[in-house]
Every structure is written in C-alpha cells, then in structure tokens.
Write a structure and sequence with these properties.
By secondary structure, this protein is α+β, with helices and mostly antiparallel strands. It is 33% helix and 21% strand.
C-alpha cells in the first residue's frame, strides 16, 4: 500500500509533524523522490519531514502498522539510485534534523542531526580551529546522514579515510521504530560486535540514521596544491610513491586529458599548463618549512629527471589553489550534457594501472566510438570511468551498448579483486552486479542482518538486493 492511498496515515502524519511537514504535491514528490542519478523513475507517494527523533520513531511505527515502505532521504546527491522512491514509498526527509547539538573540545567530537549539511559541519570545525576532512564536490548540499549511509569518501581518503573513520557513534531508528545508540562516542569499546559499522554504508536498508557524533581533526598546516603532467597511469603511481614517501599527502587525484578539456570548454577556468599531456595529477600536501622547504621542488625535479612528469604548476595563493582544485572538482558537472554512463570502480592501488589498461583494451573492442573520461582518487585505488553518449545515439541504444560493456568491465574488476562500487554505494543501479564483488554467502549474511534490523522489510526496499 502507498501512503497516498491511505487517508488515515496521511492524517496521522500531519497530526504528528504538522500539515507543512507532509507533502503530496507533484513538485515536492519530484524534489524528494529521487537523486542526481539519471534514467530512474521517481514514484514516491508522500514526503514526511520530521523535526525530532521521536517523530521519526513514530513515523516508522505508523508505516509498520499500515504496511507502507520508507525511503530515507538526506541531500539526494547520490549516484547509485539509493535514495530513489520507485514503488510508492513514503519518503522520510531529514532536512529538519539539521542542528549541531553539542561540541566537546576535549574529545574533539561534535554531535549532529542527520540533516546537517556536510559543508556546515566543515565550517563549524573551522570555527573551533579544527577540521572535518571528509570532502567531495557535493559537500554544499549533501547531508551527514546520507554521508554515513553511503560511507562517503571523496578527495582526501588517502590521508583521512572514509566517513566511517570519523563516526564516533550513530543513532538509528530501526525498521521496528526502536532507537539505538551504537558506540556512544567511545574510542575504545571492545564489547562484542560494533553495530555502528553495520549501519555505516548500509544505504538506509537497516533503518534511519537520525544523529551522529563525529570526530574532528587538527587543521592542516599550510596546505599546498600542485598540478603535474604525467604520461600514463604507471607514471602517476610512481609519482605517488615518490611524494608519499617524503611529504604528508592529503590528496592525490588523477584525471585524463579529455576530462581537462571538458572542464576548460565550460569557459570558467584557464589552461593551467602551456603544453598538453595524456594525464594529470593533482596533489595536495602540507608545505614543509625551514630546511625542508625546498623538498617539493626537489621531488618535482627528481620525477622530471626520471621521465615521470613533463610539466607542473603550484598554486601559490588560496585563489590559485582553488582554481587548480576546480580543474578536478568540476569534471562531473562538465560531463553532464553527455548524460554519461558512470562507473565508480576500485582495486588496490598497485593494480590500478593494469586495471585501466585492461578496461581500455576491452573498450577498444566493444565501443571504440564512445568517448571515455577517466578521473579519480588513485591514492586509494578508486577511479571513475564515464562513458559519454553521442548526440546521434538514443538513450535506449546507448544503454544497450553500455550494458554490453558492463559485463566485461565488471569481470575485469573481479579478476583484479576490485569493487563495482568504491564509494557511491549499490542502490538500484549496481545491485545486478553485486555478485562481481560479493559472494553468495556474503549476500546471504547481508539479507540475514537486514531481517534482524528490519523484520517487516519496509526500510528502503529494493536497494542493494531485492
């Protein structure tokens, strides 16, 4: 049953969260019923916007009683279909749980509602002289609950890890409406299973994340940004090893020439280097001082002498550094006009060059006419492969071509011990390919875990697996 067919449920929801907290108009259903993922039908029946944790609990209890499924939604910035309502589900949007509740300077932790925007948490940390290091292009609109539900990664994983590395505790409303507080902010807690980590990355299939206590870090000292021109992926990995052995890298990003050209064609940025190169590395590091101040230049000269880099530039001001970062961060937006088929893949960093070579060889056989754009976080083995749709190819025909490519691509990933989804989750788009990364036994365990947390099967149904 959908919420829109149940007048009593809608009335009960309005009595609970207020009439302005229950939305059924077409514009609201479109806004809250999907995410940035293209090509998916959005069919939510209603949207509820609770203001308190108690209201979230009561909404879940009502949904259980009425047999209505729920899709939890944060900032709806995902790319896997994990926050898409397709079956008349009730969307529970966490926008109004957006308060930073408490800050503990001794523990360097901050307690936040699930609706807190990522950039809001980053700004709060800066105000305390601290740092929240998880960062990505959608930080200005993504929400903390969604970050945790997808274990968001981003550009600084090489130094600071994924979202899960910063979650001290998490509060979850399960599929029965019970409220759990997993780990309670402890650093050391070896008392059985750490259920907090089951919730992180579960994509809302175990319950609704309503609050989290996040750890903060010391602010980075004098960060510097450099862009280097490299010939190929093996050269980029050698540059990574050279710099990482000496400097505290906070980011190491790689993108191909086609990615740079798409960003420059948008017209907002200038070409950073005089010449052209097949690949580019963007790295960020804490600038050494004193006797070690010349180390970055010495490392560049060493890489140039070994033929690993052909040119480079350093952002010597905050404005220049920001412009260099935009060359990487603006890639996804610059590709949007081509409605690309997106792939978020990973293996261990040492196998990345062979993985890219094998994928390119396959593409040369199956789809040499389709432009491919590579970029990603090679320091942690994660690459984003985007296949662009030509204007003359219909969406249906393009989908068929990509489906043919997908099987071979994911088989290559399996051979390299990789993942079909490095940081965007499984959602709707990757669940048919889950078996390339997870065994049947692992999936069976996942189903069993979901049944414990969500015995009625109402939490984000159809995501990860059916």
């Amino acid at each position: 049953m959908s919420a829109s067919d149940n007048t009593e449920l809608l009335q009960a929801l309005a009595a609970l969260v207020g009439s302005d907290g229950v939305l059924t108009d077409a514009m609201s259903l479109l806004r809250y019923g999907g995410e940035r993922t293209g090509g998916l039908v959005h069919r939510p029946s209603a949207v509820a916007l609770p203001r308190t944790v108690a209201q979230v609990q009561r909404i879940v209890q009502l949904a259980v009683t009425e047999g209505v499924a729920i899709v939890p939604v944060g900032g709806a910035t995902g790319l896997s279909g994990g926050a898409v309502a397709q079956r008349g589900e009730l969307v529970v949007a966490l926008d109004r749980l957006d308060e930073i509740v408490d800050f503990n300077p001794v523990d360097r932790t901050v307690r936040c509602g699930a609706g807190v925007i990522t950039a809001q948490l980053q700004a709060f940390a800066r105000e305390q002289g601290l740092y929240y290091p998880v960062d990505f292009a959608s930080s200005g609109s993504s929400r903390l609950g969604g970050n945790i539900a997808t274990n968001a990664g981003g550009t600084r994983v090489i130094r600071h890890g994924m979202t899960r590395d910063w979650v001290a505790s998490v509060k979850l409303v399960s599929g029965t409406g019970e409220l759990f507080d997993f780990n309670r902010g402890l650093v050391k807690n070896n008392t059985g299973y750490d259920l907090r980590h089951l919730v992180i990355g579960a994509e809302g299939t175990l319950g609704i994340i309503v609050e989290a206590t996040m750890r903060l870090a010391p602010a980075p000292r004098d960060p510097a940004v450099a862009l280097l021109a490299v010939a190929d992926v093996p050269a980029a990995m050698s540059v990574l090893s050279t710099y990482r052995d000496v400097l505290p890298l906070t980011a190491f990003e790689l993108f191909c020439a086609a990615a740079l050209e798409k960003v420059l064609a948008a017209g907002a940025l200038q070409r950073p280097l005089a010449g052209e190169s097949p690949w580019y590395v963007l790295l960020e590091f804490e600038q050494p001082h004193g006797a070690a101040g010349d180390v970055p230049l010495e490392l560049f000269r060493d890489c140039a002498a070994r033929g690993l880099v052909s040119d480079g530039v350093v952002g010597r001001s905050a404005t220049q550094a920001r412009s260099l970062w935009r060359l990487r961060e603006d890639i996804s937006e610059s590709l949007a006009p081509w409605t690309p088929w997106k792939n978020d893949i990973a293996t261990v960093p040492s196998r990345l060059p062979d993985l890219v070579d094998d994928v390119e060889a396959l593409a040369g056989e199956l789809c040499p006419d389709l432009e491919r754009v590579w970029f990603g976080h090679v320091g942690d083995g994660n690459m984003h492969l985007n296949v662009l749709r030509p204007a003359e190819l219909t969406a249906e025909a393009f989908g068929e071509r990509c489906a043919e490519f997908a099987s071979g691509l994911f088989d290559i990933l399996r051979r390299h011990g990789g993942s079909v989804s490095a940081e965007h989750g499984v959602g709707l788009l990757k669940k048919d390919y889950l078996h390339f990364t997870r065994s049947a036994q692992e999936v069976a365990l996942m189903r069993g875990i979901k049944a414990v947390f969500d015995p009625h099967g109402i939490m984000n149904p159809g995501k990860i697996f059916d």
